[in-house]
Amino acid sequence: MAIPTVDQVWADFNPDGSVKEPNKQDIRRLLRYIQGLALTSGMKAYPNKTVMDADTTQENGTPALLWADPVDANNYPTVWIWNDGPNQWIEGVDRIEPLRDKIDLHGQQIKGVAGSTDGLYAATGAPRPVVFTDMSSYEQIWKVPLSNPQTRFTIQPTDAGLEVVGLPGLSAPWPVGIKTSWDLVPGDSYYFEGVYTAGSGFAQLGFWFGTDPATTGHLSDQARMTVYRDRVLIPCLANGISGDSDRSITPNWIATGPIATGVVFGFAIDVLGDRSLRYKVYRDGLQQLVDVVVTPPGPVGSLVAGLNIINGATGRITKLLRKTNPGKTIWIDNTATESGDGSRGNPLKTVLDVPAYLAKTGYQDEITINWLSDDDYGYLQCKDSLAGKWNLNGRPGGKTRLNGYIEETIVWSPVTGTGGKVFSTDYKWGNEVRSQVNQPFLMGVSENPRPWYTFPNLILEFVLTANGGVDMAGLVGGAYAATNGKVYIRLPDGLGPDPATVNLRLSRTHTIVEVVGGPEVNITNMCLRYSSVHVFVGGSGRGVIRNCEAEWSGWNANGFECHNGSYRFENPQVRYVGNDGIARSTRTDIPFQDGAAQVIEIINPVISHTKAGDAISQHFNENNHNACITKVINPWIHDCWKCGIVSSDDLLMVEGGVIERCGTAQLSLFGIPTVSSVGRTQRAFVNGTVIDPQGVGTTGVQNLCTDGMALLRCDLNGVWIGTPVAGSGSAELVVSAIALAGQTRDPTKNILAYRDCTTERASASVVKLGSGTAGTFLPIAANALT
Length: 786
What we know:
Elements: H1 6-9, H2 24-39, E1 44-46, H3 49-54, E2 63-66, E3 80-83, E4 88-91, H4 97-111, H5 120-124, E5 128-129, E6 139-142, E7 153-158, E8 161-166, E9 174-179, E10 189-198, E11 206-212, E12 224-229, E13 232-236, E14 248-250, E15 264-271, E16 277-283, E17 286-295, E18 302-309, E19 314-323, E20 329-332, H6 354-361, E21 367-371, E22 375-377, E23 380-383, E24 389-393, E25 400-403, E26 413-414, E27 422-426, E28 440-442, E29 447-450, E30 453-455, E31 458-459, E32 479-483, E33 486-490, E34 504-506, E35 513-516, E36 520-524, E37 526-529, E38 536-537, E39 542-546, E40 549-551, E41 560-561, E42 566-570, E43 573-575, E44 582-584, E45 598-603, E46 606-610, E47 616-618, E48 628-633, E49 636-640, E50 645-647, E51 651-655, E52 658-660, E53 665-670, E54 681-687, E55 690-692, E56 699-706, E57 711-717, E58 720-721, E59 731-738, E60 750-755, E61 758-759, E62 768-769, E63 776-779
C-alpha cells in the first residue's frame, strides 16, 4: 500500500468536494515513514523502484526507501542498499520492522487493545478509550426487534470511529451504537463524541448515552438513555425517540444549537454518588448552557452509547472514553470470582487488592472500606500517607472475619539431622519483613494455659534456632522458628510429625490491621484473627473500634495493641490470644502524639483466655511523659493467665463490671522500675466492681510502688472482693514495692484506700500483705465528708 503524502493526508477537501477529515491510519503510516528516514542517517527516498534503479550515483552501502511502488512489498518498511559490486540496488536487511512492531505494540497497550482489562488506564487513571477497531472490546447493537438489519444500515469500525450509514430499507429513525462491559460507577467520568457527515432533516436524529440492564445482546426495552436531538437534551426510552417521563433534567434544557452535517457534538458526563449523570454538552467545542443533572439514575447494567440513524444519513461515533476516578469508598466481597473496580456492584475480591486500588487515588482525606462477605484473608496497613481517616466496616447486619491465614496445602520437608521430628517450608507472603513470621496454629489440639480454662487450638511457641532447626528436635512440647527464609516446625510428641498430616493454619502476616503514622482509624463489626504477632497495631493513631473481636494472635503477642495511640473500644471481645488482650506498649521508633494525653477507653469489654498475659495491660510512656489515661466501663474479664487489669497509667478509672479467675492479681497498679518513676504520681479509682479470684487467682488488688514516686494510690469504692487461692503470698489486698537505686522507700506514698467495700471471707480471715513496710492500707469512713 502506497504511503500517502503530506498534502494527501492534510487535504482540506475530498475529491467530491466534501470536507476531508484526516485518517488516523494514513497519519500513522506517514509518520512512521518519516521516522524511518530520521532514524537512518543518509537514507534516500524514491517514489518507486524504477526511479531508484535509475539513480546509480550513490556511494556503496547507501540505504533507500520507496513509498509508492506498484509492488507493495518493495515499499517501506523494506530497505534497499546500493551495492557497487553488481552496480545495483539490493534488498537489504529490514531494520525498520522491529521498531515498527515495538511502536505498534506500545500503541496497542496504550489503547488497551492487548487485553480485556483496563491495564494501563486502571493503573494511572488515564482516560480509557473504546477502540472501535477492536471488536472484542464492545458489541455493536441496535434496538430489536428489527428484521433484515443488513438492509437498514451498515456499521463500519475504523480508526476514525464507528461509522453508521442509513440504507433505503430504514424509513424511520433507529438507535444504533455500542454496548460495553462497563457500568456507571460513582466518581467515574466519560467523554462521548459524534458527528453526522451526511443527511438532512435531523429533528429526530441525535446522539444518546445510557445503560441497559441486559449486559449482552442488542438494546432491550428496559434500556434508558439521554439523547441530544434537534436542539434539546432529553431523557428517552430505549427507542431513542420517546420521552421518559420517569426521569428529568435539572435545570430545564432550553433549545440550543441544532444537529447538522459536519457539526461535532461532545458530551462530558460525570457519574454522581447515586449514579445520576451530570452532563456538559459541547457543540463544535462550545459548551451549550450550564451543567445539567439527569435523575433518577438509569438501570444497573452495561453502558450503551450511539446515534439515531435513518435512510440517507451517515453518522460516526468518534470517541467514547472512560476515566475511572477511584472513589473514597471501597467494597470487598471475598466470594467474588475476580477482583473488580471496588464499587458495590463490582467489588474487590480481597483486602490484599486494596493497595493497588489506593495507588490510583493518590492521597485522600478519608477512605471507607466496606466488606460484603463473612470472611476475607489478608492484612491492611492504614497509613496516614494515603489517607487522614480510615473507616473499616464489616458485613452489614453481621461481622466480617479478616483472617491472617489462607486455606492452602503446604508442602513440608523434613530437616536433616532431626530424626524426622522437625520440618520446614518457605516463608509465605514474603514481600515485607513484617510478613515473614508465620505463626502456626494447630486446630483441634487443645491446651490449658491454666488448669481451670482451655484453648480449643494450640498456639505453638516461638523459639530461636541457630542451626536450621536441628536444635528443635528435643522440644517434646512442640515449637516453631523462622529464619533463613524458612519456617521450621516441631510438633508436640504424639502428633505428626509431618505438619501436612495435622490440621494446621499458618498465619501469613505479622499483623491483621496496622496503623502506620497518626491517622484516625475507625473499625466496626470486624473480627481480626490469626496473626503472627499482634492482631491490631495502633501506631500513633486514634479512633473508635466498635463491636469488634480479636482472637488467635501469635505466641506472646497481643490482641489489640494500641502502642502510642488513643482509642475508644466499644463492646470489644478478645479471647485466645498469645499475651495481652488490650494493651498499650509504647514504642520509641514511631511518633508520639506530642503534648496530648494518650487515652484508652474500653466500654463493655469481654476479655478472656490469654495464653501468657493480662486482659488489659496499660504501660506508661517513658519517653515523652505524655499523660496516660485508661477508662474501663462495665468489663467482664475472666480466665486470664496473669492479671485482669494492669496499669501504670497516670490515671485509671474502672466503673462496675466483673474481674474474675485471673491467675495473679485481678487488678494491679505498678510503678515503672526506672528513674522515670521518680517524682511521678499514679492514681486509680475503682467503683462498684466485683473483683473475684474465685480461689484460683493469687490476689484481689495489688499496689506495686517504685521507690522515689511522689504517690501511687488506688481508691476502691463499693468493691466486692472474692477469695484468692490458698497459700503463702495470696491475699485480697497487697501493697508491695520496687527498689530503685538512690531512692528512699516511703510507705506513705503507696496507698491502697477503700470505702464501702466488702469481702467474701469474714474480716478476720481477710489477708492484707505489705502494710507498714511497703505501703499503707487506708480505710475511709462511709460519710467522712460532713
